[in-house]
Amino acid sequence: MGKIVTLVLLLMLTIPIGAAFAEELKMIGTVSKIEMAADKKSAIVILKDVKSGADVTIVVNDELTLDKFNDKRIVDGDEIRCKYDNESGKNISMLFRKTAGC
To answer: Which three-class secondary structure state does DSSP give residue 48?
Structure first.
């Protein structure tokens, strides 16, 4: 019985600690600036958060979104729904879409 209680307590302590390191954030914002890397394999995008008005810098690495930047399907002024992870100290995009679809 004591082993079960110890195991449950151990699990309860482990789960919140793991969740604290992987912080996934969501926001809706307007594109202020898109800066493509020279090799076209990444981009830095500045979004103005609709709720707070703060500028948030997002690093975009996925090919689908980069293609949308190159094709001008996502441009300055577009409203974006974004999920990003800031685990490594950088805001790395996990989802980057127009709120109206794209």
So the answer is: strand
Cα 3 to Cα 7, 9, 39, 73, distances in angstroms: 6, 10, 55, 57
Dihedral angle computed from the Cα positions of residues 55, 58, 64 and 67, in that order, rounded to the nearest 10 degrees: 70
At 43, which amino acid appears? Answer: A
Domain ranges of the chain: 24-98
pLDDT tens, position by position, 24-58: 899 999 999 999 999 999 999 999 999 999 999 99
The token duo for 36 is 């493509």
> Contact, 27 vs 47, CB < 8 A?
yes
Architecture of domain 24-98: Beta Barrel (2.40)
Q: Which two tokens stand for residue 26?
A: 């969501």
pLDDT, residue 23, reads 79
CA–CA dist 92, 80 (Å, integer): 15
